[in-house]
Amino acid sequence: MRIHNLYVDDAGETHFRDIEIELVKDGPGGKMSETLPATGIIFRETPGTYDLDWHPAPRRQYIINLDAGVAITVSDGEIRVIGPGEVILVEDTHGKGHLSKAIEGQLRHSIFVPID
Known about the structure:
By secondary structure, this protein is mostly beta strands. The two termini are 22 Å apart. The strands form 3 sheets. A 6-stranded mixed β-sheet has the order 2-1-10-7-12-5, with no helix packed on it. A hairpin with a 2-residue loop joins β3 and β4. The protein has one domain: Jelly Rolls (Sandwich), CATH 2.60.120.10. It has no helices and 12 strands.
């Protein structure tokens, strides 16, 4: 299963890469990954007017979009639209950070899963 990853390099620049989550358990309910660490869960509603300037992530966390997407720009200039049902692991807790913007004025519900 592929997920997005937003990370920061040693120079403080932010980048995207893809991470493959290995599905190692196969059972009657389907394939699953190993259990990954998490420290909680946060439910979020983001207005369609959301347009946040450069900022680092407040913590390392997975973000799972439920019903709308978000456009994220990293400092190397790449822009990705993280759509509904997609997962991103944000790890840029320092450095130049990223921009976040609502897509087409849509209200977005998402789940944050902190891992630190």
